[in-house]
Amino acid sequence: MTSRERSRRVDALILRHQRWGEADRLLTIFTREHGKLRIVAKGARKTTSRKAGHLEPFMRSALQLAQGRDLWIVTQAETINAFLPIRDDLQLMGIASYVIELLDKFTYEDGINQPLYRLAVETLERLCTSDPVFVVLRYYEMRLLDILGYRPQLFQCIGCQEEIKAEDQYFSALVGGVICPGCGHKYEDVRKISVAALKYLRHFQRSNYKEALAATPAKGVMQEVEKIMQWYLTYLLERAINSQVFLQQIRKDSAD
Fold it and tell me: Fewest Cβ atoms nearer than 10 Å: which of 22, 31, 87, 89?
């Protein structure tokens, strides 16, 4: 093994960490250069650790890694962006956790994906601005699906391939797209989707971020779009999205 192979410099998002041994932490990170990795931060749980403050979840850090026996080991860490506005707001923390959880659950180790890394970083940056959270999240979800090859079909009926008309339709997570009323009975998992909700899903799918910001749906439509996206994402993952439960509780507490 060459010296270059024994050391790596990475630009990383910290996804999560857990206890490792008596004083260490095992971290899962998503890097621009190497995709998702598991690494060890020696002594990170000690109060005297200089690295610990740069290794918190949904923090972007520059890391120097050295090849250990089984895992890469953090030798140096420096914060690039701590996304401080997120950390000062409980609801934004819940939303950021959702962004990171999707990135984590949809990816595997050692799969380089720079567009996905860039999307996640930009989404966390947007959460630190005054941009509408609804737009930030729906744009992130739709781009994530595009990048990973799960782009839903929203313009033609998956059943008959006819162009979708301006009327209420059905959506199927099983086949990944819209089903016209004439074909709806052929699919067991279909749910109704309104013209307005489909309009905004299409808007996010074909727009760049600047164009996506023009979306101003009514509250009921926002809720419908969110439910459709959550259903589809959960189906693809084949497991629950834990941060959604946390977000729903925060919203409930804020409404009380």
Answer: 22
